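Hi F.,

I've been meaning to write this up properly since the lab meeting, where we talked about keeping a consistent format for the predictions we share between groups. The idea is simple: the sequence comes first, exactly as it goes in, then the C-alpha cells exactly as they come out, then a line or two of notes. No screenshots and no reformatting. I'm using this chain as the first example so we have something concrete to point to.
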Amino acid sequence: MINAAVTRTLVMEREMPHPPEKVWRALTQGPLIEEWLMSNDFQPVVGHRFTFRSTPVQGWNGIIDSEVLVVEPHSRLSYTWSSLGLETVVNWTLTLTQSGTQLRMEQSGFRSEEDASYKGATWGWTKFIGNLERVVGGMD
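Output, unedited:
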C-alpha cells in the first residue's frame, strides 16, 4: 500500500473594507497584479498558462510557472504555482461581508521536506497580501 504524501496548506485570511468586485480586479488584472505581487502575463481564463516574474536571486531564476484552474468572478480564483520543483496550488476565495470582503488565500501542496519553501511562502504572502490591501485601497 502506498501512502499519499503528507502535504501542508498555508492559509491567510484578511477582512478588507472593499467590495469583492474591487478586490477581484486586483487579483485578476495584470497591471494591478504587478503592483502587489510581480510582473505577469495573467489572464482570468481557465487553462491559460502564464508566468510570474521576479528579480532572479542566487539559486532561483525568478520565474513561477502557472496555469489558471478556476475562475468564478468575484468569488473564487485558483492557479498552479510551480517553481524550483515546488508544485502547489493557490486558491483565492472572496466572501461578501457587512463591512466589505473576507479574503482567504490558501496555497496547498507543500510536501514535508519543503519546510523552507513553506516558511518562505508564509513570509512572502504576508508581504504580498499587505501590498494587495494597499493597492485595492488606492483603486477608484
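Notes:
The mean pLDDT is 94.
DSSP finds three helices and seven strands in the chain.

If this format works for you, I'll send the rest the same way.

G.
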